[in-house]
Amino acid sequence: MAAGVVPVALVIGPTAAGKTAAAMALQDQLGGPAKAQLISADSALVYRGMDIGTAKPDAHDLAAYPHRLIDIRDPSEPYSAAEFVSDADAAVLEALEQQKTPIIVGGTMLYVQRFIKGIAELPAASPRIRHELQQQLVRLGADAMHAELLALDPIVAAKIHPHNHQRLLRALEVIRATGRPMSSQWQAAKSSVAVSRLPIKLVTAVVGPSQRQVLHERIRQRFEAMLQAGFLAEVEALMQRDDLHPDLPALRAVGYRQAWHFLRGDCSHGQFVEAALAATRQLAKRQLTWLRRWSEVDVRSAAAPEQVAAQIRRLL
Q1: Predicted confidence (pLDDT) at residue 211 exceeds the cutoff of 80
Q2: Architecture label for domain 127-187
């Protein structure tokens, strides 16, 4: 390893795979919070008041295992991949200054990819343009909007499913704000990979069961535990706010949108549960597809958290 280059652990995997437990075990093995800093890479955990449905570590665990980038936004506020990269860079550098080993843990693959590969200097979200696009989406439908993107930026359109409204509208928003396709602006990111921006070497571990059925069962058990812990009451509290609605990025998180529809009377409890489980399984499928294609991995393991942590520690 080059002089001045510090190893940083990156613990990733599909939802319900046990990433957080492995990262916490790694922090223990490295000497606790005084020696290692946990940094969340999860787009749902950034939001305050969304605790149960996001499987956020509870107050006791967060006190024992402090995480950066958890509870940093109100659900009414957007949070982009570009903001994550900036915040994660700052958290890594602060940890290094304190002579702590950074441990980045999470399952938002866009965040992980942009942290590793860099991100273009894209414009900030424009409420005016986004409102216009949302109205157009309602009027014309997602397929027509995707066709528009395909004509303007075929490279980005090929990477976005028409039903992924958030990414679809963001790509169109960037074009309308800058007059340039997002793909051309991605080129600016190629010189800003993490190992160029920061004095680090990533040690990447993919955590999770090798059999999809095992993961699906974990998802089911975790969702049942969420319901017993008061997930629906959590969503009811969010619904009492006048500034929140189910189209916000925060409330598009798996489980929350389905719970909102159930509490609004749009479906039965059984339909809500099945829809939430199906959405979570689809999320896991997308994550697994991304992870299978990701070659820069040092450890792939379905072992117990302590064993995974030991494998990572030997490489740091």
Answers
A1: yes
A2: Orthogonal Bundle (1.10)
